[in-house]
Amino acid sequence: MGSNSESAMQNFQRRTMIVLLVTQIVGTIGVGAAPSLGILLASEVTQNEAWAGLARTASTLGAALLGIPLGNLAARKGRRVALSSGWLIGAIGSAILVPAAQFSLTVPLFAGLLLIGSGSAVSLQSRFAATDLASPQRKGRSLSLVVWVGTIGSVLGPNLGVPGRVVGTHTGLTVYASAFLIAAACLGLASLLIFVLLRPDPLLTARAGTAAAEQPRPKHRIRVLTSGLRTSTRQRQGMLAILTAQAIMVAIMTMTPVHVVHHGGTIELVGITISMHILGMYLLAPVAGWMVDRFGYHAPMFVGIAILTASLLIGAIYPDYMPAIVASLILLGLGWSFMNVAGSALFATAVEPDLRASAQGGVDAMANLSGAIAAFIAGPLLAVSSFAALCLIALAVLVPVTVSLVRRR
């Protein structure tokens, strides 16, 4: 009987992974438009650096604001409802950006970018969904595999301006409006795939054997999570790694398109640069997951810190040399990947099972909030100083997590 149950669980996990992997590819195509095209659209529509800076952070802020509600929704209704709802909200946001781009409308611009951030939130939560039914020996690899397949969609997303030009010639839409129309279709399809195919629900299935106890209310879950962060070194260390990597990555990545354009770069060069960065974010995620399962959590964190340090030093030393900026952005993505995979896996195993979905939504919300704050601060810093100075400041942000890891080790 136990063998049949184990075999059924493996089949559920296999089916869950296939659905998550396909959906992650489709959905991240839509989400990937925000970091490059959304940033350039914000600058074009607002024609004001302060407002443009706020608009650039809107999608990250949206991911932060929606992370906790979507996590709580997963805790109550399961992954299927939460993930499909998040992708659908992102599709609505992308659809709003079509008229915003076509007619240069500021308010719809902010609203659309805010809502498309929901896609980022569920893209992050999908990696945790991959661990719900995974065996303890394969949690790191399952998580990292979902992160890894995001490479395909996230590399294509920043380049939606290319098919956008083709769509624009047939519809009369601008390149930005056409690109976000394509993004809306991708996000809508991701929502439909999750809602129809993610059965049985991985979180509810994993909880089936232990669900006799009543699930905590949302406010109680938040109190218990806060208490856990105060008492659990593992939770704190996992969260610190996630937040640090996210803040550094978002700050530098958000300002790079502006830096490239100021040096005469085209929208195509911006798209290629961000695509290479995103390739770095996801390409070696399975290696990070394997390191977590094989060597524990600290080794890949140290690797991530070393790679981030190299990235920021290259950006600081060669800020005006475009090949160096591309190399720096690739390393930035790689460093984020190792830190994020290791930190996420550590945090997931350190939280009580009944609180896991809400806690994961909470940590993703905090990560996106830290990214939004970092991006908003990075704009004025770039305006009053330089890209090199921004890289050096980001380097200083690495110090606390490095000290924490050394002490813990």
TrEMBL record:
It is a multi-pass membrane protein. It comes from the Bacteria. Coiled coil: none annotated. One of its GO terms (molecular function) is transmembrane transporter activity. The keyword Isomerase does not apply. Residues 16-409 form the Major facilitator superfamily (MFS) profile domain. The keyword Membrane applies. Keywords: Membrane, Transmembrane, Transmembrane helix. The chain crosses the membrane at residues 18-42, 54-74, 81-103, 109-130, 142-161, 173-198, 240-260, 266-285, 297-318, 324-351, 363-381, 387-406. It is found in: Cell membrane. PANTHER family: MAJOR FACILITATOR SUPERFAMILY PROTEIN, MFS PERMEASE. This is MFS transporter. It comes from Ancrocorticia populi.
